[in-house]
């Protein structure tokens, strides 16, 4: 590690005071953000209210949560949903990654950015778009197919477990794609070359060598996809609940949102989900460490070889363009089309004559929309700023200061990655509804939630760039008499800037899309766009929802455009 | 420490009680304009926990805000059980944010069971019949659960005339409904047939046609417009006039329907008690009821007529006493449709 170069010099002791104070404050902030809500949740899961605001400790919440008549079906649904989505998004993501990275499929280069585009689409909109497309009776795809082939019944039903798996998977493909591209890029081709030289054909080489080399990475990618599906709430809320297919996240949500609210049971379910997710993340980190045994990156210079698909490359091209048209483009198109309709209608001449800008005109005078937009933008920028400042300090302490116990900070900053969004929302309600700080019901509680949830992302961006900076630069500054703070401000921070900007933009985007934490915390005046979409969709104003969606995507695209412009200037490789 | 806590608690409770006892007295005898001044002094915000759909709210709320300048309504809209659940959560943490609750009577009475509501008799409620008010609520509007259909999917000659028609097997797989509308079973049992058996028998026959369930009445109406089903069995009548005006392919049946009451109530620990009172009194007044009618709802005030065609010919009204029997009918309803 580069940090080994830091000398324990006299300069270090001179700057000890702030250097000690800051880690302690940092740890305090992290404990407050990440540990306190979990503690509250954990305690709450063992409490029952016997009289108004009088609690006793009990195990009956766990009994109600895990030994009810619905336990089995919820467990089974969650398992099928998570493994189905992990499997499907892995297969699609790997196909895309392999075709674009390792084969001679025509025009593959243009598909790389296209495959990542769905990241822009917030999960709520992804679900809504697919409801428009695959709803059994009015879904466009169903209507077209039924008309085309004269079918009696609709071929697809989005309101089903396979429907949920499909919708969630296509939203998750970009993640699988990016992880697998990284894996393919770093693979030493010599083994594949040996296989080819020994007479194996493309398919045999792929199956016997490439695939096996990928196994450890693939395992960890599938695991992380599984955990993320388990934690997700967009598809379970918009498709699962109406279809009465309940998974863990929807059970937690309903325990809180149905009368009478059952916090104990909700808490017990949340603790279970938290443990599952923590185990998943632990396995993942272990697997990625173990992965070194199957090292594919070596000191040797290499360029991954390309498979010649022969005439099959046109099939590859067909797959890529089909995927792009039907999976990436279609949801955008259907939202765009619906945003001009007065009410949802199948495409027809009659519908074309009804197209108008009414929904947009309506939104221009619709106060809740402007309030929510303002909240979303404010929260996204504030979250990104606070999270990046906090994590750059923490990352600096962890990787540069070499203070004893700094690993605790690293661990604390990693904890939130295990907290599912809905669990975080629930824990924060329980905490702040009873806490003396009056932020419950305001956007500040959302800010706390977002910052906490996205600290791990910030850490990744910040630590990545901190590790790249050789300590001799800082040492030079401190040798020239600069204090700890001056060194940080004038040397470290400017060097970190590109990485921090990238992290800032990323957190901005994920905050802007955030749904599963906000759904419990955002109310009335603290409502954000994703929640406005959800309530208005529940209220049936589906075409206005589509118009909001279009504007939301436009906002996100402009953030990304700014990102490209900025990163272009300061020269980050993206 | 414990003693201090207890002292603090009782002090806080007595303060709240004092505030509540003190407030309604003079505030009730005041004119709305005098109350308006007090409301502005409280900060000019009303936290309004109401199921009022956006399409209605956007017409009604501005009337209030224009009539009482300086007061902004912060409308927290969600389905009724979510709103009550939220209020319970807040009360549990000792942090009441809501001022006014305006939801179906069933949910008003849940909030009352949790001791969240203020006992108050508004001067405006004097003009309402006994069935439209109680010690902690007054009706804000009525809603009629009716059947509606997609005119593209239901031919003119097969248009339904009454609920018995839906027992016919030709409706198999063509029906949608709201899973929580057990008022239909109750209203039919108590007022249409005056017999549980007959009502259960009819709904069983209808259930045999594989009813598909979707939550939320606005969404049901939208699904019907989009063609998800031919008929919505439990839609709200006030959802259709505006949609028909826009050219949506729907029509609705006004021959019979179950009427349920939406009630307005004030939270006991409302952070803006005068503002809450101002809104509650305004919405119960003829003036407020006219705004409700203009906003597309069916007013509850006996002297205010609805603007749109929303009232049914035969009305099966769910009374406050009926609500007490909910659990029993809910069980039967869920059993008939195999709902969870």
Descriptive account of the structure:
The complex is a heterodimer of chains A (574) and B (340). In chain A, helix 6 (123-134) crosses helix 14 (313-338) and helix 17 runs parallel beside helix 20 (443-468). Chain A has a two-stranded antiparallel ribbon. Chain A has helices at 10-14, 16-44, 60-66, 71-102, 108-116, 123-134, 140-149, 161-185, 190-197, 202-231, 234-240, 248-257, 263-290, 313-338, 349-354, 358-364, 367-401, 406-414, 421-432, 443-468, 471-479, 484-513, 518-521, 529-538, 542-570, and strands at residues 47-51, 54-57. Residues 1-15, 291-299 and 569-574 of chain A have low confidence and may be disordered. Chain A is built from 25 helices and two strands. With 574 residues, chain A is mostly helical. Mean pLDDT of chain B is 88; it is low at 1-24. In chain B, strands 1, 2, 3, 4, 5, 6, 7, 8, 9, 10 and 11 form an eleven-stranded mixed sheet that branches. In chain B, helix 4 links the parallel strand 1 and strand 2. Chain B is of the alpha/beta class. Chain B folds into two domains: 2-141 and 261-299, Periplasmic binding protein-like II (D-Maltodextrin-Binding Protein, domain 2), CATH 3.40.190.10; 143-259 and 311-337, 3-Layer(aba) Sandwich (D-Maltodextrin-Binding Protein, domain 2). Classes of the chains: A mainly alpha (574), B alpha/beta (340). Chains A and B meet through helix 19 and helix 24 of A and helix 4, strand 2, helix 5 and helix 9 of B.
Q: How would you characterize the largest beta sheet of chain B?
A: 11 strands, mixed
Gyration radius of chain B, to the nearest Å?
21 Å
Q: What is the annotated CATH architecture of the largest domain in chain B?
A: 3-Layer(aba) Sandwich
> What do we call the CATH homologous superfamily of the largest domain in chain B?
Periplasmic binding protein-like II
Helix/strand/pairing category of chain B: alpha/beta
Query: Taking all residues together, what is the mean pLDDT of chain B?
Result: 88
| CATH second-level architecture of the largest domain in chain A | Orthogonal Bundle
Stated plainly, the CATH topology of the largest domain in chain B is called: D-Maltodextrin-Binding Protein, domain 2
Strand content of chain B: 15-25%
Unreliable sequence segments of chain A: 1-15, 291-299, 569-574
